[in-house]
Amino acid sequence: MSYLISLDGIDGVGKSTQIQRLDGYLQSRGYSTLCVRDPGSTPIGAKLREILLDSSMQLHRRTEAMLFMASRCEMIETTIRPALQAGKVVISDRFLLANVVYQSVGGAVPPERLWEMGRWANDGLCPDLTVLLDMSAEASLKRLDRAADRMESRGPEYMESVRVAFLDQIKNAGGASCVVDAQLSVDQVTAVIQHHVGAFLDQHVAAG
Ligand code: TMP
Q: pLDDT averaged over the chain?
């Protein structure tokens, strides 16, 4: 059985660690997996990621939105669909939900327009399960142990609005979804994610 699972949330919530652990958990259950990162994971995506996260770049918000969409389109068509066709579970570090949230906060592009553009860019592919790691902007910014990228450098108020938008928009992500309190300990967050993903898989295996 192939599935697309995405993990999302504001910067600093601990996605990378949890993705690694989820990958291990899925493999221990006998699934073959592929981890991807949005934006990135293809040669074009890596170049776009560099532009998009470069703090010295000035980009119009619509330009920015479309470059994120382009990177994801390339990743879906060259990497995700072939992996799904080969029967893998694909774990994506962010997906279209992040695009809608980050590029709509601040007002330049309405969320409905971003969902519409995104469905076209993704040719309808949406995650089977979206896991949202939720934490206050203040707590997440304290956890960042590197220089802020172009999004993060917009400050704590922007990040808190992004957090609220994630909680509001997750209902439109398509497929199943769950919100996990990322302020718990790392091991507790892992256990909660495994509980949700395990329940999702059991339900689908039973149905299919
Ligand atoms: P990352 O640090 O989680 O890899 O994400 C890169 C940054 O890009 C992060 O601040 C979130 C932001 N982002 C968007 O603004 N739009 C998008 O579509 C995606 C995928 C990420």
A: 94
User: Residues 69, 121: contact at Cβ < 8 Å?
Assistant: yes
Distance 26 CA to ligand 1 centre (A): 25
Tokens 């949406």 map to which residue? Answer: 126
Ligand 1 centre and the CA of 208: distance in Å? 34
**CA 30 to centroid of ligand 1, rounded, Å:** 30
Is 81 strand, coil or helix? Answer: helix
pTM above 0.90, yes or no: yes
Is the backbone peptide bond immediately before 39 cis, with ω within 30 degrees of 0? Answer: yes
The closest residue, in CA terms, to atom 18 on ligand 1 is 99
| pLDDT value of residue 107 | 67
Angle (nearest 5°) at CA 143 between 168 and 172? 15
Atom in ligand 1 nearest the alpha carbon of residue 52: 8
The rounded distance, in Å, linking the Cα atoms of 159 and 176 is: 25
